[in-house]
Amino acid sequence: xxxxxxxxxxxxxxxxxxxxxxxxxxxxxxxxxxxxxxxxxxxxxxxxxxxxxxxxxxxxxxxxxxxxxxxxxxxxxxxxxxxxxxxxxxxxxxxxxxxxxxxxxxxxxxxxxxxxxxxxxxxxxxxxxxxxxxxxxxxxxxxxxxxxxxxxxxxxxxxxxxxxxxxxxxxxxxxxxxxxxxxxxxxxxxxxxxxxxx
Length: 198
Prior knowledge:
The protein is an alpha/beta fold. The chain folds into two domains: 6-53, Helicase, Ruva Protein, domain 3 (Orthogonal Bundle); 63-197, Dna Topoisomerase Vi A Subunit, Chain: A, domain 2 (3-Layer(aba) Sandwich). The chain contains eight helices and seven strands. It has a five-stranded mixed sheet. Helix 2 (22-34) crosses helix 3 (37-53).
C-alpha cells in the first residue's frame, strides 16, 4: 500500500479520534470496508453534516445546531443556578448522574498560558456578564481539580467578587487530577450534592 492510498488516509483519519490507536483504527477501517459500507457512508454523511451545522450556543457555549441550545431555551430550567463546566461532555455527565436543574456555561478548556489559552478563549468576559444577571443567585464551579483547573476556578472567583452571587464548587469526591467525563456516576453525584461554598 502506498503512503497516500485511500485506505491509509482512512486509517489515519480514524486515528485522530481520542483513544483510537493504530490497530483500532485499522480494525475500524477494515470493518467498514469489508462488512458494512452502508454504515460507513452514513457515518460520512452524518460527520459532514455535523461539521457544517454544529456550533456553539450563544448563551452557554455548549455544542448545538441552533443559536441557543435546548437547555438555555427550556422554561423548566432554574435560571437562578449556573453550573460552570470545562467541556460539553461534562454537561452530559452531570445531567446523567444528578438531578441538577439549572443552566450551564461551558468554558471550552482551562486557563493555560503556555498553550495559548487565556480568558478570551474561555469566554470569561461573557461569564462575567452572566454573573450580573439579576435572576442568578448561585454559580457552581464543576471544574476538574487539576493545576490548570484550580487556576481557572481562582480566576472565576475573582470575576465574581463584585456580584451578590453565591459561589460554590463541587466537592472533592472527584479525584485530584481527574477529568469529569471519566468519573463514575455515583462519585459525580456525591461530589455534586456535597458542593462547598468558596
